[in-house]
Design a protein that fits this description.
heterodimer, A: 224 residues, mainly beta, eight-stranded mixed β-barrel, two-stranded antiparallel ribbon, 2 helices, globular, B: 272 residues, four-stranded mixed beta sheet
Chain lengths: 224, 272
Amino acid sequence: MSGTHGPRRGTATAALVVGLTLAVGSGTAWTTGPAQPGPSIGAARSTAPAQPVTVSPAPAGGPPRTSGSAAAVAPTHLRVDRADTTVIDAPLLPVGVDDAGRMSVPEDVSAVGWYRFGPAPGDPRGSAVLAGHVDDRIQGPGAFHGLARLSPGDRLTVALSDARVLAYVVADVGRVAKAALPTGELFGRDGPPRLTLVTCGGPFDRGTRDYRDNVVVTAVPDAR
Amino acid sequence: MRRLALAVGSVLAACAATIAIAPAATAQETGSVHVVHGIPDTPVDVYVDGQRALDDFAPGTAAGPVDLPAGSRTVALFPADAADGSGQPLLSGRADVPAGGDVTLAAHLDAGGSPTLTPFVDDVSPVPAGQARLVVRHTAAAPAVDVLADGSPAPTGLTNPNQAAAEVPAGTLSAAVAAAGTTQPVLGPADLQLAEGTATFVHAVGSLSAGNLQLVTFTVEGLHSAPAGVPAGAPSGAPSGSDGWAPIGVAAGLAVVGLSAAALRRGSATRS
């Protein structure tokens, strides 16, 4: 595991929560605390027998590196043609998260959002997530109104800002309750390159004013 | 010259214990260590348990992560031209390296200007989607400071050797350090590129009176989380084709039944 720095859930938070939490104007909560609970001086602990230490000098830290998935190339357009019918033909907009920590979806239902913090179409690994509305009472059918009608084998194209056009083929079409959406897998930044298209489906719940389910379409690079 | 014995406290040990259970513990357990050199004008060689780990470690830089075997390690700093790890070090101390844990060992000046070693726990827990963690550490010969984030005081009254942490929206943040209670930067402002799903550890080092304060920074990547969901439903709160819907709260029960039936028909066209 040398050099790798993957997520380590719950590693060291406990040491920080002992500190004092300050809420500042922007709503950012700063937690302050001591470096360490009192260093114990000279308390000779009986430790395991000395073992050879193998340490490779690491490169000196420079300025903060940017995340590998901060793509310089962005997807700009998604199109799905089926026989002589255009099922999806929508501009792609980079989006982040909303106040609730959910993926932002463009208010304009004719556009589709691309989760800009995750992989981009064309990246060598991981899931590039595209999400669009199914429909709206005021705006009418959304860009992904036809998403649930896709079938495995359907072909998609994604245009990129560098003028490349990537071809994908639908591998799976499914529907899952929003409460059970496997977000970790759906937004996974590892694994084979894939395109994940998400919209809403299932019954409309008037209580939550939302659809119960997500429709999830997975597409893989078209080797053809 | 000072001799210090440092041990990472029991809180960290407890964390390490919980982590150690999770992975298949076949390989020797290690901890991940960053080293920060914040003592001006003093290039050093760093020895861990008598073996040289870092050669010609320059002031004002950070190194790591290095994976060290978990347990109590002796860390000693010698002048960079020292022949080996024998004799009297400039600084030495013991640090408990937690299995599966992340720590920073900072060689720096205390508030009064004397060299010292301080271990910090690095919070590398997952960061919420869209955010980045910023950790600011006061490891400089200077009195209490306020940290200014985008011009506004964030943590205030931070003293050596303490830290402040926050999760902030990913992006560029302008950070500066001012004497506590003031807004005139003594260090910075510096633009920090806080990428999503990362933790950036910023150390203020050097000496205020000597005029050589600077920031030493390192970043840990891969701490991202998935968004909590994908709200791709109707942004107006109602699906298309529902123009006849009753006002909210009126005959709600009936309306729910009616709309659900309508939506079910729509849903039946989808695959599952």
